[in-house]
Fold these 2 entries.
Entry 1:
Amino acid sequence: MKKGLLIILSGPSGVGKNCVRQEIVKSHRLSLSYSISMTTRARREKEVDGVDYYFVSKEEFQKNIDEGNFLEWAEFVGNRYGTPKDKVEELRNQGKNVFLEIEINGANQVMSKVKDDRVISFFLMPPSLGALEARIRKRKTESEEIIQERLQKGEKEMTMTQNYDHIIINDKVSRAAQEIIDLVKAKLKK
Ligand code: 5GP
């Protein structure tokens, strides 16, 4: 059996990765499994533990680092986020395509660690910086200080996209999702 594809989606905070990902997973045509990350960030009201993330303490996260349980992990605006290694491998070995929604440092770690060519990476761009700020604010989940930090971080990330296979503009969720679906399908045919 062919090993499953590893699909990486990155992009600045507030660009709409979540919406695009949900649209892609909903399409049911790609046999995708979403890799649930572990994080030390506090749970947002609508988030569910074990669905959106595994929410853990700093100590538990550190224990997982020490035990070598992460495929990658990174710090993002004061919190840690990581991809559990065994689950990703297990799914890929079953031929499932695994979707990672991770920030840029983690994505670079994965791209340099995973040596097979069964990886495809996407960086989602906002149509404009104004649109990005409007989206983060609309979410109403962060304080002003964190919003500013996330915007600054996002601007920096948007200059560091050279390792990604494809840059996708999120002008419309359904269109951006379709563009990604088509590129993944083309890669699966190879
Ligand atoms: P948020 O706090 O908005 O859910 O996520 C902050 C950033 O961390 C986003 O860019 C998100 O894609 C990224 N992220 C989520 N899970 C992981 C992970 O497992 N590893 C890395 N490196 N980044 C992650």
Entry 2:
Amino acid sequence: MTSISRRPLVGGNWKMHMVGTEARELSRELVARLDQPAAEVVLFPSPPLLPTVAEVLAGSPLAWGGQDIHVEDAGAYTGDVSGPQLADAGCTWALCGHSERRRDHGESDALVGQKALAANRNGLTPLICLGETLSERQNGDTFAVLERQLNGALAGRPDPFALAYEPVWAIGTGETATPEIAQEAHRFLRETLADLIGEAAAGAKRILYGGSANPQNVADLIALPDVDGFLVGGASLDPEKFSTMIGCCGEAA
Ligand code: PGA
């Protein structure tokens, strides 16, 4: 596959952590440390924290997004968040199909595809998450799972979008994919992407790695030809770690 330059992208997935005062403090710390970030940076706070984060990040190079998005733009869907609500809160991104949503909320591949389209419809870029569980890997099903998830996510041909390869066994476990495992999966995703949207378009898409990414392991991972950044959970709550990881993306460029 021809190599073309892809600006690194780093997402901070805050999950269901923090209240407003903590979110304000972390946002301020990040704005202070990242006045010229070596990567495109987007923070994903819980919905009630979005106005606070937006207020602090406004005018900075940092963007923010939703951790999930409903397929409909409005309606009787208790507890859900719509694309227009995210856009109104200044979001420019939305996570779609995070494995915790797939696991805890039964999100199917087809639903994830509809969510990606809902994001585009509202001017948001979906960051589509996919990855195999430990048993799927042990059974030799990794590529089949990734292909099925990618086909579902892209069924309606969303654009723009970015992907995050997040092996479920690496999320929050402290066990990171080795560079060999990461590159093999990222290469497979890019080749499968090329079959779906063409080689040039596939070569321009960012594919992030997620799963216990930390300041110690990102340098080896970002150096890989098909790793274009990170989706960071735990380490994104620590401003020093998170900004160090973003800095590593610049050193690889
Ligand atoms: P982790 O989470 O970095 O804490 O493993 C990554 C994610 O779930 O996006």
